Amino acid sequence: MSRFRIGRKGVACGVCDREFAPGDEFVSAIFEVDAEGANPADEDETRTFERLDACPGCFEKIEKPAYSHWLTSLPVDEAKQPLLDLTMARDFLVRLCREDNPERQALVYILTLLLLRKRRVKLVTERVENEVTVMDLTVKTGEGDEIEEITVPVCELSEEETTEIESELGRLFGLA
Ligand SMILES: [Zn+2]
Asked: Apex CA 167: angle with CA 24 and CA 45, to 5°?
């Protein structure tokens, strides 16, 4: 699986290597993959995410189902590119919340904090539920103004865990 390629050089198809021009449509997909160097006995550690940008035609030929994917186009205005990534990150958060996998709580929590900072989600309230502090948030979904309510438990993480997750999100969505 090719790595995430947005950078100064622009975005290229991870399958055929074609570089996209502004306005080109492409699919940006997140796949679940086995983590490198993970202990196979520890299921928590074995799954991670990888992003792949591909031409729509190349994407169709990938047999492995994507965790989530977006048909998008490279903004003509380069300054809009980070917004595109933020929208994907936001939809990824919604997808993770719907899945509600306890093993991904830390990822959900850090992603929420990042998106709060970028004002892509809105904190409604913080409350205690079954002795756990949770945040109720609203997030816009899709193209329109549909609003989804999500609840995210607050996690206590070490600095190391936080850094690790932040770097994974940086890799996926260019979020710093
Ligand atoms: Zn391609």
From this structure: 110
